[in-house]
Amino acid sequence: MHQNQAALRYQADFLHNLLQAMLKCCEERGDHEQRLFGLPCSEIKCLLLFKERRYITLTQVSRELGVAKSRATALVDALVSKGLAERNPDPHDARIRIIVLTRSGERTLQAVQDYQATVHERVLRKLTPQERDQVLTCLEKLKYCMELVKQELGEGQAGD
């Protein structure tokens, strides 16, 4: 059993190092995106919330980015001041303002999406089709397992 525990500890350390290296690659890509699009990563993340929707509320920005409402307001203000978004009254509830992208915002969003897709395609092209399927399947399973552990930790079951 001691040998199995040592192997598991080695694998846990290896996983940690791999995740750290992957995170660093993602952060460096984010730095490159900032320079390429002239926007901070936080504003790019905010833009990407419009990927599959026409409008969003400030509360949704706050919740989906995991930031305080004041920070969400600052992000939206920055996009508005750059001509990428605008605030409009909600046609169904006058108390609510919805945030929509301008044409310039839509073009920027499309450029960011195209750039990210190209980068990910370049990564996938380094693998054979079979390796792609294996890597994506394993990453999906890893994400699922990480979400389970996150739930366990949130429920106070860290020792399991």
Task: Give structural attributes.
mainly alpha, three-stranded antiparallel β-sheet, 160 residues, 71% helix, 6 helices, Arc Repressor Mutant, subunit A
Walk me through this protein's architecture.
The chain is about 70% helix and about 10% strand. It folds into two domains: about 1-40; about 40-155, Arc Repressor Mutant, subunit A. It has helices spanning about 1-35, 40-50, 60-65, 70-80, 105-125, 130-155, and strands at about 55, 85-90, 95-100. It is mainly alpha-helical. The radius of gyration is 20 Å and the shape is globular. Strand 2 (about 85-90) and strand 3 (about 95-100) form a beta hairpin. A three-stranded antiparallel sheet has the order 1-3-2.
**How large a portion of the residues is in β-strands, by DSSP E?**
5-15%
Strand order of the largest sheet: 1-3-2
In CATH, the topology of the largest domain is named Arc Repressor Mutant, subunit A
* CA(first)-CA(last) distance: 17 Å
Largest sheet: 3 strands, antiparallel
What's the helix-strand series? Answer: HHEHHEEHH
Oligomer: single chain
CATH class of the largest domain: Mainly Alpha
Could you list the spans in which at least 5 consecutive residues all have pLDDT below 50? none
Tally of strands: 3
CATH homologous superfamily classification of the largest domain: Winged helix-like DNA-binding domain superfamily/Winged helix DNA-binding domain
